Amino acid sequence: MDEGRAHPESPPEPTRRGFFKIAIGVLAAFGGLVLGIPLIGSLIGPAFRKKPTRWSRVAKVDALPVGQPTSVSFTDRSSEAYLRETVVRNVWVVRRSATDITVYSPICTHLGCRYDWEPNIGRFLCPCHGSLFSLDGKVLAGPAPRPLDTLPMKIESGDLYVEWERFELGISGKIPV
Length: 177
Hints:
Layout: H1 16-44, E1 55-60, E2 70-80, E3 83-95, E4 101-104, E5 116-118, E6 123-125, E7 132-133, E8 139-141, E9 153-156, E10 159-163
Antiparallel strand pairs: 1-10, 2-3, 3-4, 5-6, 6-7, 7-8, 9-10
């Protein structure tokens, strides 16, 4: 035999311990995959989901007076997490013509108080801190940081529909909550 030559080593024979190492590694990878996909989906999934729009019928357009703010109540479906309920909401609607309508949230942009239309002065007035708003929603006086919040609206077959939204209070930007 040649002692100076290196003999190629034969691959090690599979052992029971080696088999279990591979089997446990495969099972752990499969378990991590099964648990990881839903976890990752729940973390990044909401970024790709669109918020469904919920339009609520508010009133017949012809029933709204022209040039006069009108407080209108309507029912809306509210859903937070798994709680779903029917809620009565109010909005201020200003109709300037058959197609020119503005819908205001009834919540003051300062601290969330409910404001009213004062017909004797022709302004919206918040009773909490004295914010005063014009018919077009602009701040005329008081601590309100921005104009009245308008709500998305549409007119279909002579009916006025509104999508209810809430916005951050006390800041100059209109940011949905």
